[in-house]
Every structure is written in C-alpha cells, then in structure tokens.
Amino acid sequence: MNEIVDKLILLDREGQEKIIALENEKKELSTYIKEIRKNLTKEYKTSNREKIAEVRTERKNDYKERAKKVRLEAKEKEKNDVVFFKEYKEQWLEELVNFCLKV
After folding, report:
1. d(CA 73, CA 75)
2. Selection from 69, 47, 68, 65 nearest residue 57 by Cα
3. Which pLDDT tens digit goes with each residue over 54-100?
4. What global pTM score does this model have?
5. Where in the chain are the domains?
6. Three-state DSSP class for 103?
C-alpha cells in the first residue's frame, strides 16, 4: 500500500512540475508575444509616418509643378494679350475717335 501511495505522490509531484513548467512556458510565450506586438506596432507607425511623408512630398511636388504650369500659361496669355492689343490698338483708337466725333 505504501508503494501505491509513494507512486501517487511521485506522480503528483511530476504532474505539478509539468504544470509549473507549462505555466512558465506560458509566461515566456506571453512576454514574447507582447514584445512582438510592441515591435509590430512600432514598425507599423514608422511605416505609416514614412508613407505620409512620401505622400506629402508627392503632393507638394505636384502642387509646385501645377503652379509653375499655371504661371507659364498666364505669362503666355499675357504675351498674347499684349500682341493682340498692339495689333488692334490703332484700329480701336480710330474707331473710338470716330465714334466720339459722330456724336
């Protein structure tokens, strides 16, 4: 009978040791998962910051290009307007003078 009790005690101790070992492994895994989560979060934030900076740079460059294009178009239109005005200036003045003299 003592033999059976001794075996039961031994089995109980072995079982408790396995439970303790598994609990320790669980704690280690939990710590490892928390560390991985922390690193992934950090990488995600860094990646998003980089993407945001990249999009801002692209938008800024796009805006600069569009602004440059609009300025060039405005200058070209101004040149065309000046040429047009010079071309018709005499005619318009003559028509204005004639209109004023008729009244």
Report:
1. 5
2. 65
3. 999 999 999 999 999 999 999 999 999 999 999 999 999 999 999 99
4. 0.52
5. 1-73
6. coil
